[in-house]
C-alpha cells in the first residue's frame, strides 16, 4: 500500500483527526505521530518530508497544526506531495481557522473528504470541486422525514389549541361543576335547514362510593402551551384515542414515501451494488449544456470463505464510456475475459467492507441522452401576473423513475400559486417560496404530464427548475453476470442491487 494514514496533529505531535487506510492500531499511529516533531527538529519549510527505517512522513505546517501523511518508503514522493496539497486544500474548505476547535467541530466532514481522496491506500482521481459535491450530497429521505416531523408538530399544536378552546367552552357551560352527587344536563335542539332534531342528554349519576368520585384536584389535566412538551407523545395519545392526525399534505407525503421507496434487497454472503449518479445541466430553452454519468460497482463480502472470487461483468453498452478498475484489480483479466479479480488471486477480498471494484464515466451534450425532459413556459399577463405551463416527457422509456420531485422557484413574497391543472400532487413552501411537483412513478404509462399555475411574477423568477428522482434500472447496459470461486470456478450465490440517482438535474 502507498498511503498508510492521513492525520492532522499539533506541533507537539498530538493527533486531532487521523484516518488509517490500512490495518494499523491506534497506539501505532499515536507512536509515529509522537516521534514526528523530534524528527523534523523545528523545521519551517512549507513542503517537505522526513524518513525513518520503516515509514516516510510527508507534511505541511499550518500556524498551529501539521497536516501529515504517513507513507511507505517505496512510494513516489512526487505523487505524495501532490496528494498532500489536495489534503491541505480540503482543510480550509471546512474549517474557518485551522486550529484545534475548528478541526474537532468538523472532524466528520474532514474524514468524509479524506475518504474521497484516498481509497485502499491509493489516491483517487478527484479534484476539490468533486470532493465538495460528493460530501455535500443531500438525502431526500432526510428532507421527507423533516417535512413530516414539522407537519406533525404543526398539526399537534393546532390540535392542542382546539382542545384548549373546547375545555374553556365546557367549563363556561357548566353551572355547578362536578360534585359527588351527579352531573346535571340539559335538553337542547339541534336544528337544520330541513327541520329540527331533538337530542336529549341522559343525566349521568355517579355512585356515592368515594372511590368512584372524580376529584378535580387529583385529576391529571393536560397542560397546554407549556414549553418542552413532548409533541410526539401527545400525537401518539390522540391516535390511541381514535383521533385522525395529519393534514392532507402530510397524508400525501406519507403515501408518496411508502409507494416510492425502493425495495430492500436481502444481502447474501457476496453482495454487489451498482450505482449511477446523474448530473444534468440544461438551458431554459432546452439545450443540454452538460450531461455526466458516474457509475460504480461496490463489492461487499461477509465472510473470508467467499473472499477469493471472480466477478463476471456483462458489458453490452455501445456508447463510448470510460471503464476503470481499481488499482488492485487485474486489469488484463478484465480486458480479456470481462472478469474482475485481484492481481494476486491467492489473496481474498477484504471482509465486511464496501469496496469499489469498477467505475465508469460518460459525458455528452446530446439532448436525446437525458432520460427526462422538462419544458417550462412562463407567460406574463397584463395585470402583473404570470401563467406558467410546465411539461415533462420521459425520453428513455426503459427507465422507471420513482420519487420524482420537480421544484420550481417562485417570486419572493410568499404568494400562494393558483393551480389550474396538474398530473400528480404538489406542495407549496412559503418560507422557501418554492412549488414542488411530485409524482410517485414515471414510466411508459404516464410518460408525459403537465402542471399549470398562475402567480404574480416575471418570467425569470421560475428558474432554475430542479429535478430529483431515483430508479432501480441502470442507465447503461452494464450488468453483473456471474460470481465464481477462483479455484473451482463454481457458482457463488450472490445478491445485487442497482440504482440510478439524479444527483444534480436542473434547467437554468
From TrEMBL:
Taxonomic superkingdom: Eukaryota
Protein name in the entry: Coatomer subunit delta
Lineage: Eukaryota, Metazoa, Spiralia, Gnathifera, Rotifera
Topology of the protein relative to the lipid bilayer: Peripheral membrane protein
Annotated keywords: Cytoplasm, Cytoplasmic vesicle, ER-Golgi transport, Golgi apparatus, Membrane, Protein transport, Transport
Record-linked SUPFAM superfamilies: Second domain of Mu2 adaptin subunit (ap50) of ap2 adaptor (SSF49447), SNARE-like (SSF64356)
Annotated localization: Cytoplasm; Cytoplasmic vesicle, COPI-coated vesicle membrane; Golgi apparatus membrane
Listed Pfam families: Adap_comp_sub, Clat_adaptor_s
One Gene Ontology CC term in the entry: Golgi membrane
GO term, biological process aspect, one: protein transport
Family: Belongs to the adaptor complexes medium subunit family. Delta-COP subfamily.
Self-association and partners: Oligomeric complex that consists of at least the alpha, beta, beta', gamma, delta, epsilon and zeta subunits.
Main location: cytoplasm
Function: The coatomer is a cytosolic protein complex that binds to dilysine motifs and reversibly associates with Golgi non-clathrin-coated vesicles, which further mediate biosynthetic protein transport from the ER, via the Golgi up to the trans Golgi network. Coatomer complex is required for budding from Golgi membranes, and is essential for the retrograde Golgi-to-ER transport of dilysine-tagged proteins.
